[in-house]
């Protein structure tokens, strides 16, 4: 038998056929497991929504306990609302590199541990001698460190979820859907739960125990982080990472930049505008409601309407809650669900963590800037005591939304099913065309099988490894 005819065949050429064969052989249980892996990777983003959403109610409660003047002294209130974004940016950038060079699972487990630890310490914040300034300073520090863990989830958890979404057990028509449900929808769910928790705790403890309300509201953020940590213990690295990562190879950053800078800039700019609009409106929702209700003394009224806004539901305040809720909901309907999807599936596996982390970090810069710009924006439109002042940010947000839609339409290409596989193949060809040796790409266990022999029908190997007919 001529070994040249049936010799070593590069399995890369047969990848589509192998994929189809694996998919057809999967049982229902294996398909469910494939979907569950997407959620195991992405669900931890619930902590992002919860941690950012809860601080609005916590600030409202702190104002009631200690007085708004003392909380706002030295900008404590604004710093407390925005500092988590600074930590998130650090987490996104640092864990973006770790995700690509150390591993997705390492990043996800580390992120879970950081979130659980500092969510607990946030709830335990205390100043020396019981001083308010010391307590707020510790709370701010813990929120910054908590932000690092939240930020780490984006280039580790979300990226892993996107890679899991193209596994054989996932229907091609549902790849993007499962990713959106497991990532951004979890953030939104976190915001909703963050609106409910302080209200329920207030019903339990009442006006005389508001300290318990805000501390437990922060401390309960430990629970989802620990549950997801246990869920992820037995996970392995995604198959795409095993095959196409550059964990053991030098990353040619200049070649990467030349190929992807336009899409990276467009996605980053759009994400900046989106977070600039969405996060401030979410963080200030309790304060906005407080003003719209005329400074109602009842926390039940303020926190209750905050829940309605997060859910969208039914006077003046009722109509405002509906429109405000719709305003936030439409933001999640389109860009909220699709920005992470675009960031994860526009880049190759080799640098996906860093690409996603950088784009998301620029987005969080938008959230940070928006949080600081929100109060001056209200003042510039006439102040918080006027209708013009309170509606001004909505006009700004609407205008920026139109601008971001134009950027997406003209500068970001549409996604396709199995687009990550196609992009990885195109990226390899691009590198090889520019003289880069791609043989070191992938993990050792994957690269060892990158080129292997297969047995054609009616043929088997003899002891020397050659093929002969049977």
UniProtKB/TrEMBL annotation:
Residues 447-470 are annotated as: Disordered. The keyword Transmembrane applies. One of its GO terms (cellular component) is plasma membrane. It is a multi-pass membrane protein. Its main location: membrane. It is found in: Membrane. Residues 458-470 have a biased composition (Basic and acidic residues). The chain crosses the membrane at residues 32-58, 78-99, 106-124, 136-157, 178-206, 212-231, 251-274, 317-343, 355-374, 394-412. It holds the Pfam family Sugar_tr. Residues 37-470 form the Major facilitator superfamily (MFS) profile domain. Keywords: Membrane, Transmembrane, Transmembrane helix. GO terms for molecular function: carboxylic acid transmembrane transporter activity. This is Major facilitator superfamily (MFS) profile domain-containing protein.
């Amino acid at each position: 038998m001529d070994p040249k005819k049936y010799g070593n065949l590069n399995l890369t050429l047969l990848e589509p056929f192998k994929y189809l064969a694996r998919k057809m052989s999967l049982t229902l249980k294996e398909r469910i497991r494939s979907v569950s892996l997407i959620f195991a990777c992405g669900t931890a983003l619930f902590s992002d929504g919860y941690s950012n959403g809860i601080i609005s109610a916590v600030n409202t409660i702190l104002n009631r306990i200690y007085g708004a003047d003392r909380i706002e002294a030295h900008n404590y209130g604004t710093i407390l609302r925005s500092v988590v974004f600074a930590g998130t940016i650090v987490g996104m950038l640092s864990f973006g590199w770790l995700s690509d060079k150390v591993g997705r699972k390492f990043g996800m487990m580390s992120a879970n541990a950081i979130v659980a630890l500092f969510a607990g310490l946030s709830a335990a914040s205390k100043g020396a001698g019981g001083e308010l300034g010391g307590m707020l300073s510790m709370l701010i520090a813990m929120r910054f460190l908590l932000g690092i863990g939240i930020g780490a989830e984006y280039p580790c958890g979300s990226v892993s979820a996107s890679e899991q979404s193209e596994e054989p057990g996932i229907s091609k028509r549902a790849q993007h859907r499962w990713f959106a449900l497991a990532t951004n929808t979890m953030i939104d769910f976190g915001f909703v739960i963050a609106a409910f928790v302080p209200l329920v705790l207030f019903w339990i403890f009442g006006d005389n125990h508001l300290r318990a309300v805000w501390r437990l509201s922060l401390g309960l953020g430990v629970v989802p982080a620990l549950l997801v940590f246990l869920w992820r213990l037995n996970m392995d690295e995604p198959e795409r990472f095993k095959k196409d990562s550059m964990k053991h190879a030098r990353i040619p950053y200049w070649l990467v930049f030349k190929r992807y800078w336009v899409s990276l800039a467009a996605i980053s700019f759009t994400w900046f505008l989106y977070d600039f609009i969405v996060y401030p409106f979410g963080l200030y929702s309790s304060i906005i409601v407080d003003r719209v209700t005329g400074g109602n003394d009842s926390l039940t009224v303020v926190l209750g309407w905050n829940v309605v806004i997060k859910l969208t539901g039914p006077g003046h305040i009722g109509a405002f809650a509906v429109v405000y809720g719709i305003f936030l909901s439409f933001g999640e309907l389109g860009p909220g669900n699709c920005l992470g999807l675009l960031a994860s599936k526009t880049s190759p596996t080799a640098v996906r963590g860093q690409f996603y982390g950088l784009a998301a970090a620029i987005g969080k810069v938008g959230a940070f800037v928006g949080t600081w710009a929100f109060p001056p924006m209200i003042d510039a439109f006439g102040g918080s005591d006027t209708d013009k002042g309170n509606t001004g940010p909505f006009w700004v947000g609407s205008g920026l939304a139109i601008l971001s839609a134009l950027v997406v339409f003209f500068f970001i290409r549409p996604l396709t099913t199995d687009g990550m596989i196609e992009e990885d193949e195109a990226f390899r060809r691009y590198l090889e065309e520019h003289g880069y040796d791609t043989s070191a790409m992938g993990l050792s266990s994957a690269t060892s099988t990158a080129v292997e022999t297969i047995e054609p029908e009616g043929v088997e190997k003899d002891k020397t490894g050659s093929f002969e007919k049977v």
